[in-house]
Design brief:
The structure is a single chain. The protein has 718 residues and is mainly beta. Among the domains are: 39 residues, no CATH class; 30 residues, no CATH class; 35 residues, no CATH class; 56 residues, Laminin, CATH 2.10.25.10; 40 residues, Laminin (Ribbon); 125 residues, Immunoglobulin-like (Sandwich), CATH 2.60.40.60. It is 9% helix and 37% strand. The strands form 24 sheets. A 6-stranded mixed sheet has the order 45-46-47-54-53-50. Strands 6-8-7 form a 3-stranded antiparallel sheet, with no helix packed on it. Helix 1 packs parallel to helix 2. The radius of gyration is 52 Å and the shape is extended. The chain starts with a helix and ends with a strand.
Length: 718
């Protein structure tokens, strides 16, 4: 970006027809670039840029295979992604702080920086700001990769100065600093473009177009104000490690101690520094502990004699403290005071409910007693549980009444009453309740057929072949078929019924039920692939309750793709993967220092040193495989290798995780291709997640790749 800004300066000098002269304030290489662009670009030489040397291969790699015939498990992208170059020691202040250091140009130097100005501007004494040269003919606007906005009209006059004489009022510009005009016989002062009139109506001050929003800089460009004008520069800020870009586009320090990005260990204190942090050893311990050999250990106050136990007590040390244990033990019912004496416990006040309701608590030495409250109630009443009042005795509920058989007891306050039940009447001679025979008292009027007396009531019955109607009095013909005495078909006859069966059934020995022909038993399992269910007169094939649906032929079972039809319960952050008879919800998340480049792939963002770049995977890729329990072993299930491969490539395959039961193993087919195969039979459905690491040796450097393979072993298809 700095190179482009310097070149734009030369292009502007050439377009204005000015001479191309070197500006010592710009420094090298900016001055060299400006002269090259000003002179037409014929002698342009790129400034030397120092880069870290890259290792050169002794022999040009020869491609020995393409991606055909390989499952793309892992592949190597361009060499730039594998670069292990480390940053230099010099800090580029101009890159970190952007346009905050200098008004015009910032030039980085070894260990520092310096500011420079555009042509026709002079660097001020503060070393950062620039002002126009005194011999400039007019105020201009400078371009830096942006179009200069149209010049604004002269500022509107805000003050009119009245003068007594009309001639020569604006001689030598009159009282005005910039432009003097006569309006209606009065002097009016105005300012040049890029300036605004001050409060005195005479002087002019610079208009800050950047602050007032009167500039035409686009998003991604930074507006820089100058005297009477402004210019736009491209502003792309890249912060160094330990800094972050805030909303004001400034690089500010990251507080690793607050954001939990530090690596301080236990018993270490994190202290934030500019662009980094440091860990300090904790030098203070909690009360009851002391620092010894860099660790806080317990202080034994009993051994050192720093406890506060009295004469009748023994000191007992605890972790971080101590307690005083009395030498004398108190009996039950007594409590030891701070002086070691045993005093009586008043259980009547210390216990929440020492006695049951109706009893009073009386404290004694070392114990207490409960004494019942004395309350006298009249006949038909008794005291409550608390012994505080008399309540009615329910003779009917307690069974102490003298009501006879067939009588009903009704409780009354302090007494009770005996009444006869419905259907009974009181006999004064026997002083008891006797049954009323309704059939004798009302002959032929209660029942249509037969009346039978019952204790306290009566019951109507019907002759054979009839049943009692809903009113309980009349009789109607019995239709035995209404009660479904037959399993299939019933024919009602007078006083009886007849059962018969439909086609495909036969009547059983009981004469009521029909026996079905069991096709499933007779077919010996050849009708259905999973389960045959016998139904009356036929049969039906069934599938497992979950994961399968019946095929169109009604005999075989077809797997349901829950992921395709949307019947799964996977969250939005998970990926649904269909397997035989079920599905799995998989979550593919990238670990820290990795970014997600596709749904199944994560790539490393950076590495901190040479060993970290070789040992941590440059790419993590997820795969899913589905097999049935009847798979023949050994079975090659996964092929892995670099794509494309080059002569001299060599790989090392390792299963780091998920193979605890040793069902899987790896084998190389050649120096740059390997396989993962199943070496043991999996007899039951089971899920595996294998972490297969591939280390690629190429041109004297190891590069690590990681394949996370989900393997689902399901039951064989029905």
């Amino acid at each position: 970006q700095q190179c482009c800004d310097c070149c734009n300066l030369g292009l502007r000098l050439r377009s204005e027809g000015k001479t191309c002269e070197s500006n010592i304030n710009l420094g090298y290489p900016c001055s060299h670039v400006m002269l090259s662009c000003c002179e037409g670009g014929d002698h342009f030489v790129h400034p030397e840029i120092k880069r870290h040397p890259e290792p050169l291969p002794t022999v040009t790699p020869e491609k020995v295979s393409e991606t055909e015939g390989h499952n793309e498990a892992l592949s190597i992208s361009n060499e730039a992604e594998l670069s292990n170059n480390l940053p230099g020691d010099d800090l580029d202040e101009c890159l970190i702080y952007g346009g905050e250091l200098c008004q015009h140009l910032c030039i980085n130097t070894v260990g520092s920086y310096k500011c420079s100005c555009f042509p026709e501007f002079t660097l001020q004494d503060d070393g950062t700001s620039c002002s126009p040269d005194p011999d400039r003919g007019q105020v201009t606007k400078l371009e830096a990769e942006a179009t200069i906005p149209p010049a604004a009209s002269p500022s509107q006059p805000i003050l009119i100065v009245s003068l007594q004489e009309e001639q020569d009022k604006c001689k030598d510009n009159g009282p005005c600093k910039h432009i003097c005009s006569i309006v209606e016989e009065s002097v009016v002062c105005s300012c040049l473009s890029g300036y605004t009139i001050m409060a005195d109506g005479i002087s002019c001050e610079d208009l800050d177009e950047c602050l007032a929003g009167a500039h035409a800089c686009s998003r991604g460009q930074l507006c820089v104000n100058t005297l009477g004008s402004f210019y736009c520069v491209n502003h792309r800020v890249i912060c160094a490690e330990g800094f972050i870009l805030n909303r004001h586009r400034k690089c500010v320090d990251i507080n690793e101690c607050v954001t939990d990005r530090h690596t301080c260990q236990r018993r270490e204190h994190c202290v934030n520094t500019m662009g980094s942090f440091k860990c300090l050893q904790e030098l203070s311990c909690q009360p009851g502990y002391e620092l010894k050999d860099g660790e806080c250990v317990d202080i034994d106050e009993c051994e050192r004699g720093t406890h506060s136990c009295k004469v009748n007590f023994v000191c007992q040390n605890t972790e971080g403290s101590f307690y005083c244990e009395s030498k004398q033990r108190c009996m039950d019912g007594f409590l030891q005071d701070p002086e070691g004496n045993c005093v009586d416990i008043n259980e009547c006040t210390s216990l929440p409910e020492p006695c049951k309701p109706g009893f009073n608590c009386i404290n004694t030495v070392g114990s207490y007693t409960c004494q019942r409250n004395m309350l006298t109630c009249s006949r038909g009443y008794h005291s409550n549980e608390e012994g505080t009042r008399c309540i009615d005795v329910d003779e009917c509920q307690t069974g102490v009444h003298r009501c006879g058989e067939g009588q009903i007891c009704h409780n009354l306050p302090g007494t009770y009453r005996c009444d006869c039940k419905m259907g009974y009447q009181y006999d004064a001679f026997s002083r008891s309740c006797i049954d009323i025979n309704e059939c004798w008292n009302y002959p032929g009027r209660l029942c249509q057929h037969t009346c039978e007396n019952t204790p306290g009531s009566y019951h109507c019955t019907c002759s054979s072949g009839f049943r009692l109607s809903y009113d309980g009095k009349h009789c109607e013909d019995v239709n035995e078929c209404d009660t479904s005495p037959c399993s299939q078909e019933c024919a009602n006859v007078y006083g009886s019924y007849q059962c018969y069966c439909r086609q495909g059934f036969q009547l059983a020995e009981d004469g009521h039920s029909c026996k079905d022909i069991d096709e499933c038993t007779q077919s010996a399992g050849i009708l259905c692939t999973f389960r045959c269910m016998n139904v009356p007169g036929s049969y039906q094939c069934a599938c497992p309750e979950q994961g399968y649906t019946m095929a169109a032929n009604g005999r075989t079972c077809r797997d349901i793709d829950e992921c395709a039809i949307g019947t799964h319960n996977c969250s939005a952050a998970e990926t649904c993967y269909n397997i035989q008879g079920s599905f799995r919800c998989l979550s593919f998340e990238c670990p820290s220092n990795y970014r997600k480049v596709s749904d199944m792939r994560c790539e490393r963002i950076s590495c901190f040193n040479y060993l970290d770049c070789q040992n941590t995977p440059v790419r993590i890729t997820y795969y899913q495989l589905n097999f049935q329990t009847n798979i023949v072993v050994p079975a090659h299930i996964f092929r892995i290798g670099p794509s494309p491969a080059y002569a001299g490539d060599n790989i090392i395959l390792t299963i780091n995780k998920g193979n605890e039961e040793n069902y899987f193993s790896t084998r190389r087919l050649n120096s740059y291709t390997g396989i993962v195969y199943l070496q043991r039979q999996v007899k039951e459905p089971k899920d595996f997640l294998l972490d297969v690491e591939m280390k690629l040796w190429r041109q004297g450097t190891y590069t690590t790749f990681l394949a996370k393979i989900y393997i689902f072993i399901t039951a064989h298809a029905y």
